[in-house]
Specification:
Bound molecules: alpha-D-galactopyranose
Largest sheet: 6 strands, mixed
Strand order of the largest sheet: 5-4-6-3-1-13
Distance between the termini: 13 Å
Number of strands: 13
Helix content: 40-55%
Number of helices: 11
Shape: globular
Strand content: 15-25%
Radius of gyration: 21 Å
Amino acid sequence: MSATLINNVKNTFIRTFKTDPLLIFSPGRINIIGEHTDYNKGFVFPAAINKGIVAAIQKSELDFSTAYALDLNGKIEFNLDKLKPLKEGRWENYVFGVVHEIQNKNKLIGNFNLVFKGNIPSGAGMSSSAALENSIVFGLNELFDLELSKHDMILISQKAEHNFVGVKCGIMDQYASMFGLKNHALLLDCRTIESQPYEIDFKDYQLMLINTNVKHSLSDTEYNDRRFACKSISKLLSVKALRDATEADLEKIIDKVTPANYQKALYVIQENSRTLKAAKAIEYGDLETLGSLIYQSHNGLSNQYKVSCHELDFLVDQAKANPNILGARMMGGGFGGCTINLIAKTQAEAFAEKVSKAYHREFNKTCSVYFIEISEGTHLVK
Ligand code: GLA
Protein backbone atom coordinates (compact mmCIF):
# COMPACT_ATOMS: atom_id res chain seq x y z
CA MET A 1 0.00 0.00 0.00
CA SER A 2 1.46 3.32 -1.00
CA ALA A 3 1.79 6.16 1.52
CA THR A 4 1.84 8.73 -1.28
CA LEU A 5 -1.48 7.44 -2.58
CA ILE A 6 -3.05 7.58 0.88
CA ASN A 7 -1.82 11.12 1.52
CA ASN A 8 -2.97 12.26 -1.87
CA VAL A 9 -6.53 10.99 -1.30
CA LYS A 10 -6.63 12.22 2.29
CA ASN A 11 -5.34 15.71 1.51
CA THR A 12 -7.69 16.11 -1.44
CA PHE A 13 -10.60 15.16 0.79
CA ILE A 14 -9.64 17.63 3.52
CA ARG A 15 -9.05 20.41 1.00
CA THR A 16 -12.38 19.78 -0.72
CA PHE A 17 -14.69 19.04 2.20
CA LYS A 18 -12.90 20.69 5.16
CA THR A 19 -13.32 17.66 7.46
CA ASP A 20 -11.30 14.58 8.35
CA PRO A 21 -12.39 11.45 6.49
CA LEU A 22 -12.33 7.76 7.26
CA LEU A 23 -9.70 6.14 5.07
CA ILE A 24 -10.13 2.71 3.55
CA PHE A 25 -7.69 0.60 1.57
CA SER A 26 -9.24 -2.06 -0.60
CA PRO A 27 -6.86 -4.28 -2.58
CA GLY A 28 -6.94 -5.71 -6.06
CA ARG A 29 -6.25 -9.41 -6.46
CA ILE A 30 -4.23 -11.94 -8.34
CA ASN A 31 -5.51 -15.40 -9.14
CA ILE A 32 -3.06 -18.30 -9.17
CA ILE A 33 -5.46 -20.63 -10.98
CA GLY A 34 -9.20 -21.29 -11.35
CA GLU A 35 -10.39 -18.90 -14.04
CA HIS A 36 -14.05 -18.63 -15.05
CA THR A 37 -14.88 -21.28 -12.48
CA ASP A 38 -16.40 -18.93 -9.90
CA TYR A 39 -19.76 -18.39 -11.59
CA ASN A 40 -19.87 -22.15 -12.17
CA LYS A 41 -19.83 -22.52 -8.38
CA GLY A 42 -16.40 -24.12 -8.51
CA PHE A 43 -12.99 -23.39 -6.98
CA VAL A 44 -10.68 -20.41 -7.44
CA PHE A 45 -7.32 -19.58 -5.88
CA PRO A 46 -6.93 -15.82 -5.54
CA ALA A 47 -5.00 -13.56 -3.17
CA ALA A 48 -5.28 -9.87 -2.31
CA ILE A 49 -2.31 -7.69 -3.25
CA ASN A 50 -0.63 -4.52 -2.04
CA LYS A 51 -2.13 -2.46 -4.86
CA GLY A 52 -5.70 -1.26 -4.96
CA ILE A 53 -8.01 1.62 -4.16
CA VAL A 54 -7.78 4.18 -1.38
CA ALA A 55 -11.11 5.78 -0.49
CA ALA A 56 -11.74 8.71 1.85
CA ILE A 57 -15.31 9.05 3.08
CA GLN A 58 -17.29 11.13 5.56
CA LYS A 59 -20.89 12.15 6.29
CA SER A 60 -22.12 15.29 4.58
CA GLU A 61 -24.26 18.00 6.19
CA LEU A 62 -25.67 19.00 2.81
CA ASP A 63 -28.78 17.59 1.15
CA PHE A 64 -26.81 15.81 -1.57
CA SER A 65 -23.78 13.51 -1.81
CA THR A 66 -20.54 14.04 -3.72
CA ALA A 67 -18.16 11.51 -5.23
CA TYR A 68 -14.79 12.42 -6.64
CA ALA A 69 -12.75 10.03 -8.82
CA LEU A 70 -9.30 11.50 -8.45
CA ASP A 71 -7.72 9.39 -11.20
CA LEU A 72 -10.17 10.61 -13.78
CA ASN A 73 -10.62 14.05 -12.29
CA GLY A 74 -14.34 13.31 -12.32
CA LYS A 75 -16.77 14.71 -9.77
CA ILE A 76 -20.48 14.10 -9.36
CA GLU A 77 -23.14 15.42 -7.00
CA PHE A 78 -26.15 13.18 -6.56
CA ASN A 79 -29.23 12.41 -4.49
CA LEU A 80 -29.40 9.10 -2.71
CA ASP A 81 -32.91 8.20 -3.72
CA LYS A 82 -33.92 6.64 -7.01
CA LEU A 83 -30.41 6.03 -8.28
CA LYS A 84 -30.25 4.58 -11.77
CA PRO A 85 -27.26 3.31 -13.76
CA LEU A 86 -25.69 5.81 -16.14
CA LYS A 87 -24.31 4.90 -19.55
CA GLU A 88 -22.13 1.77 -19.65
CA GLY A 89 -18.52 2.35 -18.72
CA ARG A 90 -19.15 5.33 -16.43
CA TRP A 91 -17.27 5.25 -13.10
CA GLU A 92 -20.30 6.64 -11.26
CA ASN A 93 -22.06 3.31 -11.73
CA TYR A 94 -19.80 1.71 -9.12
CA VAL A 95 -20.77 4.30 -6.52
CA PHE A 96 -24.47 4.39 -7.41
CA GLY A 97 -24.61 0.61 -7.62
CA VAL A 98 -23.21 0.09 -4.14
CA VAL A 99 -25.51 2.74 -2.62
CA HIS A 100 -28.53 1.27 -4.36
CA GLU A 101 -27.75 -2.30 -3.30
CA ILE A 102 -27.24 -1.21 0.33
CA GLN A 103 -30.64 0.48 0.25
CA ASN A 104 -32.13 -2.66 -1.30
CA LYS A 105 -31.19 -4.46 1.90
CA ASN A 106 -33.32 -1.96 3.79
CA LYS A 107 -30.31 -0.27 5.31
CA LEU A 108 -30.50 3.45 5.76
CA ILE A 109 -27.64 5.72 4.81
CA GLY A 110 -27.37 9.51 4.81
CA ASN A 111 -25.52 11.86 2.47
CA PHE A 112 -21.77 11.45 2.25
CA ASN A 113 -18.67 12.72 0.52
CA LEU A 114 -16.24 10.36 -1.16
CA VAL A 115 -12.82 10.72 -2.79
CA PHE A 116 -10.99 7.73 -4.26
CA LYS A 117 -7.94 6.89 -6.29
CA GLY A 118 -6.14 3.66 -7.15
CA ASN A 119 -2.81 2.30 -8.27
CA ILE A 120 -3.97 -0.59 -10.43
CA PRO A 121 -4.89 0.28 -13.96
CA SER A 122 -8.47 -0.64 -14.83
CA GLY A 123 -8.65 -3.44 -17.37
CA ALA A 124 -5.49 -5.05 -16.00
CA GLY A 125 -7.47 -8.07 -14.79
CA MET A 126 -6.52 -7.25 -11.20
CA SER A 127 -10.02 -6.27 -10.14
CA SER A 128 -9.89 -2.58 -9.62
CA SER A 129 -13.71 -2.71 -9.86
CA ALA A 130 -14.16 -5.07 -6.93
CA ALA A 131 -11.61 -3.06 -4.95
CA LEU A 132 -13.61 0.11 -5.56
CA GLU A 133 -16.98 -1.45 -4.73
CA ASN A 134 -15.60 -2.99 -1.56
CA SER A 135 -14.00 0.26 -0.45
CA ILE A 136 -17.33 2.08 -0.77
CA VAL A 137 -19.50 -0.52 0.94
CA PHE A 138 -16.90 -0.93 3.70
CA GLY A 139 -16.73 2.83 4.23
CA LEU A 140 -20.51 3.31 4.28
CA ASN A 141 -20.88 0.38 6.67
CA GLU A 142 -18.46 2.05 9.12
CA LEU A 143 -19.88 5.53 8.68
CA PHE A 144 -23.55 4.65 9.15
CA ASP A 145 -23.17 1.63 11.49
CA LEU A 146 -25.01 -0.62 9.06
CA GLU A 147 -23.90 -3.82 10.81
CA LEU A 148 -23.18 -5.58 7.54
CA SER A 149 -20.92 -8.62 7.74
CA LYS A 150 -18.05 -9.01 5.27
CA HIS A 151 -20.16 -11.62 3.49
CA ASP A 152 -23.06 -9.17 3.20
CA MET A 153 -20.69 -6.56 1.85
CA ILE A 154 -19.21 -8.67 -0.92
CA LEU A 155 -22.66 -9.72 -2.08
CA ILE A 156 -23.64 -6.04 -2.24
CA SER A 157 -20.50 -5.29 -4.28
CA GLN A 158 -21.26 -8.17 -6.62
CA LYS A 159 -24.86 -7.03 -7.14
CA ALA A 160 -23.66 -3.51 -7.87
CA GLU A 161 -21.45 -4.99 -10.59
CA HIS A 162 -24.33 -7.05 -11.99
CA ASN A 163 -27.04 -4.42 -11.92
CA PHE A 164 -25.22 -1.12 -12.39
CA VAL A 165 -21.92 -1.92 -14.08
CA GLY A 166 -23.46 -4.64 -16.24
CA VAL A 167 -20.96 -7.47 -15.74
CA LYS A 168 -22.51 -10.68 -14.44
CA CYS A 169 -19.37 -11.52 -12.49
CA GLY A 170 -18.81 -14.36 -10.04
CA ILE A 171 -17.77 -13.77 -6.43
CA MET A 172 -14.00 -14.30 -6.67
CA ASP A 173 -12.86 -10.69 -6.99
CA GLN A 174 -15.03 -9.23 -4.26
CA TYR A 175 -14.17 -12.13 -1.95
CA ALA A 176 -10.42 -11.95 -2.48
CA SER A 177 -10.35 -8.19 -2.08
CA MET A 178 -12.40 -8.27 1.14
CA PHE A 179 -11.04 -11.40 2.85
CA GLY A 180 -7.42 -11.36 1.66
CA LEU A 181 -4.70 -12.43 4.13
CA LYS A 182 -1.07 -11.39 4.15
CA ASN A 183 1.16 -14.01 2.47
CA HIS A 184 -1.76 -16.37 1.82
CA ALA A 185 -3.75 -17.37 -1.24
CA LEU A 186 -7.33 -18.44 -0.61
CA LEU A 187 -8.70 -21.66 -2.01
CA LEU A 188 -12.28 -20.46 -2.32
CA ASP A 189 -15.26 -22.71 -2.78
CA CYS A 190 -17.62 -20.46 -4.72
CA ARG A 191 -20.65 -22.51 -3.72
CA THR A 192 -20.26 -22.18 0.04
CA ILE A 193 -18.30 -18.91 -0.24
CA GLU A 194 -15.81 -20.21 2.26
CA SER A 195 -12.09 -20.45 1.78
CA GLN A 196 -9.02 -22.17 3.08
CA PRO A 197 -5.82 -20.12 3.34
CA TYR A 198 -2.57 -21.50 1.87
CA GLU A 199 0.67 -19.88 2.86
CA ILE A 200 2.52 -18.72 -0.21
CA ASP A 201 6.26 -19.12 0.01
CA PHE A 202 7.66 -20.18 -3.33
CA LYS A 203 11.27 -20.24 -2.03
CA ASP A 204 13.50 -19.43 -5.01
CA TYR A 205 10.48 -18.52 -7.15
CA GLN A 206 8.07 -15.63 -7.18
CA LEU A 207 4.98 -14.39 -8.95
CA MET A 208 5.34 -11.65 -11.50
CA LEU A 209 2.59 -9.96 -13.52
CA ILE A 210 2.93 -8.61 -17.03
CA ASN A 211 0.21 -6.27 -18.24
CA THR A 212 -0.48 -6.33 -21.98
CA ASN A 213 -2.01 -2.87 -21.52
CA VAL A 214 -4.86 -3.88 -23.78
CA LYS A 215 -8.52 -4.25 -22.95
CA HIS A 216 -10.80 -5.32 -25.74
CA SER A 217 -14.02 -3.40 -25.93
CA LEU A 218 -16.29 -6.43 -26.20
CA SER A 219 -14.87 -8.12 -23.12
CA ASP A 220 -17.95 -7.49 -20.94
CA THR A 221 -20.36 -8.86 -23.53
CA GLU A 222 -18.10 -11.83 -24.17
CA TYR A 223 -17.93 -12.46 -20.42
CA ASN A 224 -21.70 -12.44 -20.03
CA ASP A 225 -22.03 -14.73 -23.07
CA ARG A 226 -19.70 -17.28 -21.49
CA ARG A 227 -21.68 -17.20 -18.30
CA PHE A 228 -24.90 -17.73 -20.21
CA ALA A 229 -23.42 -20.65 -22.21
CA CYS A 230 -22.29 -22.39 -19.01
CA LYS A 231 -25.72 -21.99 -17.50
CA SER A 232 -27.48 -23.46 -20.49
CA ILE A 233 -25.14 -26.46 -20.55
CA SER A 234 -25.76 -27.10 -16.84
CA LYS A 235 -29.46 -27.13 -17.61
CA LEU A 236 -28.93 -29.73 -20.31
CA LEU A 237 -26.93 -31.77 -17.82
CA SER A 238 -29.61 -31.32 -15.14
CA VAL A 239 -27.07 -30.01 -12.65
CA LYS A 240 -27.16 -26.79 -10.66
CA ALA A 241 -23.80 -25.65 -12.02
CA LEU A 242 -20.92 -27.04 -14.09
CA ARG A 243 -19.06 -27.66 -10.87
CA ASP A 244 -21.38 -30.62 -10.38
CA ALA A 245 -20.58 -32.22 -13.74
CA THR A 246 -17.83 -34.62 -14.82
CA GLU A 247 -16.19 -35.06 -18.19
CA ALA A 248 -18.13 -38.31 -18.56
CA ASP A 249 -21.44 -36.49 -17.96
CA LEU A 250 -20.55 -33.99 -20.62
CA GLU A 251 -19.65 -36.72 -23.07
CA LYS A 252 -23.24 -37.98 -22.82
CA ILE A 253 -24.72 -34.76 -24.20
CA ILE A 254 -22.10 -34.20 -26.86
CA ASP A 255 -24.75 -34.35 -29.62
CA LYS A 256 -26.88 -31.71 -27.96
CA VAL A 257 -24.30 -28.90 -27.82
CA THR A 258 -22.20 -27.10 -30.39
CA PRO A 259 -18.54 -28.19 -30.52
CA ALA A 260 -17.55 -24.71 -29.32
CA ASN A 261 -19.79 -24.88 -26.27
CA TYR A 262 -18.70 -28.45 -25.58
CA GLN A 263 -15.11 -27.23 -25.35
CA LYS A 264 -16.12 -24.36 -23.07
CA ALA A 265 -17.88 -26.67 -20.63
CA LEU A 266 -15.01 -29.14 -20.80
CA TYR A 267 -12.60 -26.33 -19.99
CA VAL A 268 -14.59 -25.37 -16.88
CA ILE A 269 -14.73 -28.95 -15.61
CA GLN A 270 -10.99 -29.42 -16.19
CA GLU A 271 -10.03 -26.04 -14.72
CA ASN A 272 -11.98 -26.81 -11.60
CA SER A 273 -10.03 -30.01 -11.07
CA ARG A 274 -6.75 -28.27 -11.93
CA THR A 275 -7.44 -25.77 -9.16
CA LEU A 276 -7.77 -28.50 -6.55
CA LYS A 277 -4.61 -30.15 -7.87
CA ALA A 278 -2.79 -26.82 -7.66
CA ALA A 279 -3.76 -26.48 -4.00
CA LYS A 280 -2.24 -29.92 -3.32
CA ALA A 281 0.91 -28.98 -5.27
CA ILE A 282 1.31 -25.84 -3.17
CA GLU A 283 0.77 -27.83 0.01
CA TYR A 284 3.57 -30.22 -1.00
CA GLY A 285 5.82 -27.44 -2.30
CA ASP A 286 5.73 -29.04 -5.74
CA LEU A 287 6.28 -25.99 -7.92
CA GLU A 288 6.94 -28.00 -11.11
CA THR A 289 3.45 -29.46 -10.95
CA LEU A 290 1.94 -26.10 -10.05
CA GLY A 291 3.67 -24.49 -13.01
CA SER A 292 2.52 -27.17 -15.40
CA LEU A 293 -1.10 -26.74 -14.21
CA ILE A 294 -0.80 -23.00 -14.78
CA TYR A 295 0.37 -23.56 -18.38
CA GLN A 296 -2.50 -26.01 -18.93
CA SER A 297 -4.92 -23.42 -17.60
CA HIS A 298 -3.74 -20.92 -20.19
CA ASN A 299 -4.00 -23.46 -22.93
CA GLY A 300 -7.63 -24.10 -21.98
CA LEU A 301 -8.47 -20.41 -21.64
CA SER A 302 -7.00 -19.71 -25.03
CA ASN A 303 -8.06 -22.73 -27.10
CA GLN A 304 -11.20 -24.02 -25.39
CA TYR A 305 -12.76 -21.13 -23.49
CA LYS A 306 -11.51 -18.59 -26.06
CA VAL A 307 -11.00 -15.64 -23.74
CA SER A 308 -7.34 -14.91 -24.54
CA CYS A 309 -5.92 -12.59 -27.21
CA HIS A 310 -2.72 -12.34 -29.31
CA GLU A 311 -0.94 -10.18 -26.77
CA LEU A 312 -1.62 -12.57 -23.87
CA ASP A 313 -0.70 -15.64 -25.93
CA PHE A 314 2.51 -13.95 -27.01
CA LEU A 315 3.55 -13.26 -23.39
CA VAL A 316 2.79 -16.85 -22.37
CA ASP A 317 4.80 -18.17 -25.34
CA GLN A 318 7.73 -16.01 -24.29
CA ALA A 319 7.50 -17.50 -20.80
CA LYS A 320 7.34 -21.06 -22.17
CA ALA A 321 10.55 -20.51 -24.09
CA ASN A 322 12.33 -19.58 -20.87
CA PRO A 323 13.46 -22.41 -18.56
CA ASN A 324 13.41 -20.07 -15.55
CA ILE A 325 9.64 -19.83 -15.69
CA LEU A 326 7.66 -22.79 -14.39
CA GLY A 327 4.22 -21.56 -15.43
CA ALA A 328 2.40 -18.61 -17.00
CA ARG A 329 -1.15 -17.84 -17.98
CA MET A 330 -3.61 -15.04 -18.58
CA MET A 331 -5.35 -13.88 -15.42
CA GLY A 332 -8.88 -12.63 -14.81
CA GLY A 333 -11.71 -12.27 -17.30
CA GLY A 334 -9.42 -12.18 -20.33
CA PHE A 335 -9.32 -10.35 -23.68
CA GLY A 336 -6.43 -8.32 -22.33
CA GLY A 337 -5.02 -7.52 -18.91
CA CYS A 338 -2.14 -9.39 -17.30
CA THR A 339 -0.35 -12.69 -17.39
CA ILE A 340 0.78 -14.23 -14.12
CA ASN A 341 4.20 -15.90 -14.19
CA LEU A 342 5.90 -18.24 -11.74
CA ILE A 343 9.53 -17.29 -12.23
CA ALA A 344 12.92 -17.87 -10.57
CA LYS A 345 13.63 -14.83 -8.36
CA THR A 346 17.13 -14.31 -9.69
CA GLN A 347 15.88 -14.24 -13.30
CA ALA A 348 12.84 -12.00 -12.93
CA GLU A 349 14.50 -8.67 -13.79
CA ALA A 350 16.27 -10.11 -16.81
CA PHE A 351 13.10 -11.69 -18.15
CA ALA A 352 11.14 -8.48 -17.55
CA GLU A 353 13.62 -6.60 -19.68
CA LYS A 354 13.76 -9.20 -22.40
CA VAL A 355 10.02 -9.73 -22.69
CA SER A 356 9.35 -5.98 -22.71
CA LYS A 357 11.65 -5.55 -25.70
CA ALA A 358 10.13 -8.51 -27.53
CA TYR A 359 6.60 -7.26 -26.85
CA HIS A 360 7.42 -3.85 -28.21
CA ARG A 361 9.00 -5.35 -31.28
CA GLU A 362 5.94 -7.52 -31.92
CA PHE A 363 3.09 -5.09 -31.19
CA ASN A 364 4.71 -1.69 -31.25
CA LYS A 365 3.35 -0.92 -27.80
CA THR A 366 4.62 -1.38 -24.26
CA CYS A 367 3.76 -3.95 -21.64
CA SER A 368 4.16 -3.26 -17.91
CA VAL A 369 5.76 -5.52 -15.35
CA TYR A 370 4.47 -5.64 -11.75
CA PHE A 371 6.05 -7.28 -8.74
CA ILE A 372 3.35 -7.67 -6.12
CA GLU A 373 3.07 -8.64 -2.47
CA ILE A 374 0.25 -10.76 -1.14
CA SER A 375 -1.52 -8.60 1.40
CA GLU A 376 -4.43 -8.12 3.74
CA GLY A 377 -8.01 -7.51 2.48
CA THR A 378 -10.18 -4.37 2.71
CA HIS A 379 -9.46 -2.44 5.92
CA LEU A 380 -9.46 0.95 7.61
CA VAL A 381 -6.22 2.89 7.31
CA LYS A 382 -5.26 4.27 10.71
C1 GLA B 1 -13.58 -11.53 -13.71
C2 GLA B 1 -14.82 -11.71 -12.82
C3 GLA B 1 -14.63 -12.87 -11.85
C4 GLA B 1 -14.16 -14.13 -12.55
C5 GLA B 1 -12.99 -13.83 -13.49
C6 GLA B 1 -12.63 -15.01 -14.33
O1 GLA B 1 -12.51 -11.11 -12.95
O2 GLA B 1 -15.10 -10.54 -12.12
O3 GLA B 1 -15.83 -13.09 -11.15
O4 GLA B 1 -15.21 -14.75 -13.23
O5 GLA B 1 -13.27 -12.75 -14.36
O6 GLA B 1 -12.14 -16.04 -13.55
